[in-house]
Specification:
The chain is built from twelve helices and no strands. It has about 230 residues and is an all-alpha fold.
């Protein structure tokens, strides 16, 4: 019961985090470093994009907060931070999935061989896209840990990447939105424009909350009782 209450409470993490970050827009000294950051990006052209994507991929492979990189993407690239952050996520999630698939999946299946394990593995393989997409939407497990664990399943690389893209898109958009608001503040946007941006960000956070709750229902139906 306590575990279920904890999971339900964690569903509010996204909206609460977005509200706190939006409030911080008015308190942080954006002007001193956002403008130089964007000038550096513009002066380096495509190289700045490549550096960001590779850095993002490195953060995803390691147990580091990828959401902070999405905020940095919004600060540095504006709305271009959305596709760049998603690309970094896709590049970074391949190596952990491949490593566990290559070296750990076989030994783990032999170690825990049995009809129930085999049936669960077949079910995940058949519904790989849906399973991965729902898992990406929910904050049940950290993103980096998900990448390693999904390598132990029968999910193929195509559905794995496609579902990751779909599942991460809402949260990535929200984090880049926060960064873009920082860019607006640094550019001297008037308060009304920032209020509108913060309102839109709050609505997006509420939409993500609805998606998380729906995803958990679907995961329970699929037999994932931990959701």
């Amino acid at each position: 019961m306590r575990h279920a209450r904890t999971l339900k409470a964690s569903a509010w993490l996204w909206p609460a985090l977005l509200v706190l970050l939006a409030a911080g827009i008015w308190m942080l000294p954006w002007e001193g470093w956002v403008v130089p950051l964007r000038q550096w990006v513009e002066s380096h052209g495509a190289m700045g994009w490549v550096v960001f994507v590779l850095a993002y991929a490195g953060v995803v492979v390691l147990p580091l907060p990828a959401a902070a990189m999405s905020v940095a993407g919004g600060l540095a690239f504006g709305w271009w931070g959305v596709p760049l952050s998603l690309l970094g996520s896709l590049v970074g999630c391949v190596l952990p999935w491949w490593a566990t698939r290559r070296w750990l999946r076989g030994p783990m299946l032999r170690r825990f061989d049995g009809p129930r394990v085999a049936a669960a593995d077949r079910a995940v393989r058949r519904n790989g896209f849906l399973f991965v997409a729902l898992l990406r939407v929910t904050p049940i497990l950290p993103f980096t840990l998900q990448n390693y664990l999904l390598g132990l399943t029968g999910v193929r690389i195509g559905p794995y990447l496609a579902a990751t893209l779909v599942g991460l898109a809402p949260g990535t958009l929200a984090m880049v939105w926060v960064g873009e608001m920082g860019g607006l503040a640094a550019a001297g946007a008037d308060r009304a424009k920032l209020v509108v941006a913060a309102g839109g960000l709050t609505l997006l956070g509420l939409l993500i909350l609805v998606m998380i709750r729906r995803a958990r229902v679907e995961l329970r139906r699929a037999g994932f009782d931990g959701a």
